[in-house]
Amino acid sequence: MTxxxxxxxxxxxxxxxxxxxxxxxxxxxxxxxxGASYGFRxxxxxxxxxxxxxxxxxxxxxxxxxTNGSGIAGLQSWQELQKLDAGSWQSSAYAAxxxxxxxxxxxxxxxxxxxxxxxxxxxxxxxxRTGKVVAEHAARLWRNERRKPLLTSxxxxxxxxxxxxxxxxxxGLLLHELWTGWLETGLMLGCxxxxxxxxxxxxxxxxxxxxxxxxxxxxxxNDVEQVQRLSALKTDGLITDRVDVFCPDT
Length: 250
Known about the structure:
By secondary structure, the chain is of the alpha/beta class. The chain is built from eight helices and nine strands. It has a single domain (5-240), classed as Phosphatidylinositol (PI) phosphodiesterase (TIM Barrel). 30% of the residues lie in helices and 17% in strands. A nine-stranded mixed sheet has the order 1-9-8-7-6-5-4-2-3. The chain starts with 13 loop residues before the first strand and ends in a 10-residue tail after the last strand. Mean pLDDT is 96; it is low at 1-5.
């Protein structure tokens, strides 16, 4: 089952990156709450799997940068991971903030009517399993909701597994660069959106994407000049760290 972009695109233009960008510890419930306090109604987060198959929020393969843990996160159990402090690295005000599970973030977003962009962020070597399990969990968690989460990934194998597991959830292909076959890959995966490094969008790439039926989103848009350029190109979505600068209603 595939969908035209407009068939499944209820999302707002502005998306808060990792909850609240850099103002709170990324990928935590505290960051989501702070982003919401600035008026944001859609959030992006990174989701990977514990070694016992629990989807949880974390960007890096390893724990050192954003927690008091160490080693590869995906090799540890959820019981071990949820004991870690994921807030003190950013500020003492967030001491003891835990790593949230996808279930926790889903409950928060659903209760408040927020939209979610789930970036499937596999631990190295687990693309297919992570795509499958994350999509299955998302389909279950949002089964009674009209507005579904957007599943995105830089990994085509993860998106293919997500498509196979939950074809009713919208998908987006993330791009660091416009590699050969990017447009065809997005079409093959039944994606509704292409999400690029903002520098990759120009008249040609936007025209190609829109002509193929894709919505066009950008990361990570933190400067007024970037917003103006992307607005002139008529792109569809902006993922930002600067929840304190940009008004999500514009």
